[in-house]
Amino acid sequence: MYLGGRETKPGSHKPVYVGQTNDLKERFEDHEKEACARRNGATHIHAHLNGNKQSRLNEEKDIIRKWKPVCNDQLV
């Protein structure tokens, strides 16, 4: 699970995009939401490594529902 975030104050971040993948390198080679994330001030990528796909999907859904990241189209 990963998110692109922007710093709201020193040490605090707000997600602008949340996603999940089994392979971060493969996922970031040409990410379709990179331009949106940059336009919305993303400066950091946060990752939570988890080998269980269903767990990643659940975590992704929970974070999207809570934060409603501007670059996510689904689950908002």
Summarize the model shown.
By secondary structure, the chain is of the alpha+beta class. It is built from three helices and three strands, in the order E-E-H-H-E-H.
Task: Outline the structure in words.
The protein has one domain. It is globular, with a radius of gyration of 12 Å. Strands 2-1-3 form a three-stranded antiparallel sheet. It is α+β, with helices and mostly antiparallel strands. The chain is 34% helix and 26% strand. It has three helices and three strands.
Portion in helices:
25-40%
Order of helices and strands: EEHHEH
Uncertain parts: none
| The number of domains | 1
- How large a portion of the residues is in β-strands, by DSSP E? 25-35%
Task: List strands and helices in order, with pairings.
Layout: E1 2-9, E2 12-19, H1 24-28, H2 34-39, E3 44-47, H3 53-67
Antiparallel strand pairs: 1-2, 1-3
